[in-house]
Amino acid sequence: MNILDQIVADKRKEVALRKSLIPYKQLEASVLFERATISLSQSLKNSTSGIIAEHKRRSPSKAVINQSLNVQDVAKGYEDASVCGMSVLTDGKYFGGSLDDLLVARASCDLPLLRKEFIIDTYQILEAKAYGADVILLIAAILTKEEIKQFSELAKSLDLDVLLEVHNLEELQKSIMPTIDMLGVNNRNLKTFEVSLETSKALSNHIPDDFVKVSESGISSIEAIKELQPYDYKGFLIGENFMKTNNPGESARSFIKSLL
């Protein structure tokens, strides 16, 4: 079993437990469930930098990245740096995140927030809405075409943007549907954890212009972004590069200043 299969197996158990503790109706009664969402796809279309900055404490590939920062400071720092959006890891076992991180980020900034999670159940989409997210991530590698359709339609009915992540052409072709806002190409092979920007370049021509193109993973330099911009990428998800510093917001600010 590879790492992705293991994460999904654990996630199914976790979601089953959460559903038994907090019913759907309780999520729908959340104060944040009725808030107007902020569109990340629109933010990216109107941006010159396209930076989506991440809050991530650790990962299976890098172990500990940064355990010492609090989410409030990171969120405020990213907002002050004028990033386009913030990605918040909510997986606990493998990434050290939680839904409380999402809640704190929501209370701390007015950025579009992406719930970065391994979504395998509609329940998690309602959770995302209830905890203040504006965007959900769907990972094509772990979902069928029918699930992508069902989950993205539910997200749109809740006014959530949908970022669909692919790793290859086969995943991309099964994922193209009108309920997707952004197509993210993950440059990291989730089975081997090797990273190559060539993945984004190779898939760019296969992504219709209706979708905002986002490149994810392995983007740690201005050069990488400049290399991908000619391929019509509008969004760049940057996690470890900012989080491995003592001040992610300041790192993001100087990165964006250099980029522009």
Question: If you had to describe this structure to a student in words, what would you say it looks like?
Answer:
With 260 residues, the chain is α/β, with parallel strands linked by helices. Helix content is 42%, strand content 17%. The protein contains 12 helices and 10 strands. The protein has helices at 3-21, 24-28, 40-45, 71-80, 99-108, 122-130, 145-157, 169-175, 198-204, 222-228, 240-243, 248-259; strands at 51-55, 58-59, 63-64, 85-89, 113-116, 135-139, 161-166, 182-186, 212-216, 233-238. The strands form 2 sheets. An 8-stranded parallel β-barrel has the order 1-4-5-6-7-8-9-10, surrounded by 5 helices. The protein has a two-stranded antiparallel sheet with strand order 2-3. Helix 4 packs parallel to helix 12 (248-259). The protein is globular and about 45 Å long. The N and C termini lie far apart (43 Å). The mean pLDDT is 94.
